[in-house]
Amino acid sequence: MEEIRLIEVKEEILSDNIKQAEEVRERLRKTKTMLLNLMSSPGSGKTSLILQTIEGLGGDLRLGVIEADIESTVDAEKVAARGIRAIQLRTGGFCHLDAAMVTQGIDAMDVSELDLVIIENVGNLVCPAEFDTGAYKNVMILSVPEGDDKPLKYPLMFSVCDLLLVNKIDYLSLSDFDMAALRKRVLALNPRIIILEVSCKTGAGIESWIDWLKAEVAAFKHLK
Amino acid sequence: MEEIRLIEVKEEILSDNIKQAEEVRERLRKTKTMLLNLMSSPGSGKTSLILQTIEGLGGDLRLGVIEADIESTVDAEKVAARGIRAIQLRTGGFCHLDAAMVTQGIDAMDVSELDLVIIENVGNLVCPAEFDTGAYKNVMILSVPEGDDKPLKYPLMFSVCDLLLVNKIDYLSLSDFDMAALRKRVLALNPRIIILEVSCKTGAGIESWIDWLKAEVAAFKHLK
User: Fold this and answer.
1) Which residues of A touch B81 (CB under 8 A)?
2) pTM for the whole thing?
3) Helix, strand, coil % (nearest 5) of chain B?
4) ipTM of the complex
5) CA distance A163 to A180
6) Which residue has the higher pLDDT, A140 or A109?
7) Rounded distance, CA B23 to CA A89, Å?
8) Please, are residues A2 and B83 in contact by the beta-carbon 8 Å criterion?
9) Dmax over Cα atoms in chain A, in whole Å?
C-alpha cells in the first residue's frame, strides 16, 4: 500500500449571511410561515418529492415553492403546473442559495398567505450545507444509488439537517446499499436526526413524510 | 398554472485561475504526463471507476491519482491499497478543485515518472465545471439513477467534458431513464463529446473506456 499524502486547502467563508438568515427567520415567524430548505445531490429526487408532497398534502396547507436552478426553469414549471405558487431563482454560476437570495424569493411571494414554503436548493451536497438560508427546518435527500458511504464523505450536510429522506428504496433489490450501516453513520454525526425511507416513484413512505410535515407546521404555528 | 417569477442572482468568478491552469498544462506537457479531471455528482461512481481503471490497465500505464475530498481519506486509501500513488487533497469547505490546488497535488508526486494522473474532483456537478484544473482531458460520469434530464439542469458540466461515461447501466431495468433522450440532450450542448455506457459494478463497457484512455495517452505522448 502506497503512502497517502495529505494537503489542506482552505477558503474564506462569508459570515454576514448569518445576520441575513436571522432576518428571514424573524420575518417568517411573524407571518407564521414555515420555511423548509430541501437539499440533496443532483438527481436524488428533490423535485419528485415536492410533487409527491403537493399531492400528499391535498391542499391541507397553503404551500409555496422557491426553486433554485442554475439555468433552466424546468422544475418551477412542473410545480406551477399543479397550481402551486412557484418562484424560480436562476442562480447563474452559483452553487448554493444564501439568505439574501432566499429573501429575494420571499419578497416575490405574499408569504403572509402561506403556511409552508419549500426551498429546492441547488443540487449539491457541499456548499448548501455551509449557508444558512434562514429556513426553520433543513431536510436532505440521499438516494439509494448514491451509496451508504456518503455520510463519511459529506458529513456537514448530514450534520445540519433535521430530517433525512432515504429515497429510491425501490432500487434496494439491485443494490448493495446497507441501510443499517447508513443509519449508524448518520446518527454518529447527528443523533437527533429523523430518518425516513421513501420512494417518490412508488409512493412508499410518503405518508410518514406528510405526517411529519403537518406536525411540524402545526407546532411552528404555536411558537410565540 | 401559476405564473413563474424569475430572479437572477449572480456571483463574481475568479479569473487568475486560468493562468495557473496554463502553467500546469505546460509543465505536464514537458514531462509527458496526461492529466485527466474526473467529475460527477456524489455517488455516481468516480472512485469505483478509478478502481476499475487500475484493474483494466493492468500496469500498462504508470498511473497516479489525486483525490479531492472534503473531510475523509477513504477514497485515497482504497486507491493506495492497490499499489497506486495517491495524493489526498483535503479541501475543507471547498466545493471544487482549482489549478492552484492541483499544483499542490502535482508538487507532491514525481510526475516525470507517470504517464497518467487522474484527478478525482469533489462530487459536485456545479462548481468543478467552472474551474480549469489544468487537465488535458475532462471526463464526467452521469449515473442512470440521476436521471436523463441532468443536461438540462447542469449544462456547463456537459459542455466542458471530452467524454461522458453513463454509469450504473445495471440499473436500467428498474429505471425509466431514456438513453436516446439523454444522448440527444448531451449532444445538443456538446456535439463532439464521446458517450460510453458502463457499469463499474458488472464491468460492462469498461474495456471501451480503457481503450479510449490508452489511445489518448499514446496521442498525448506524440504532442510536440
Assistant:
1) 1
2) 0.84
3) 40, 20, 35
4) 0.75
5) 17
6) A140
7) 37
8) yes
9) 61
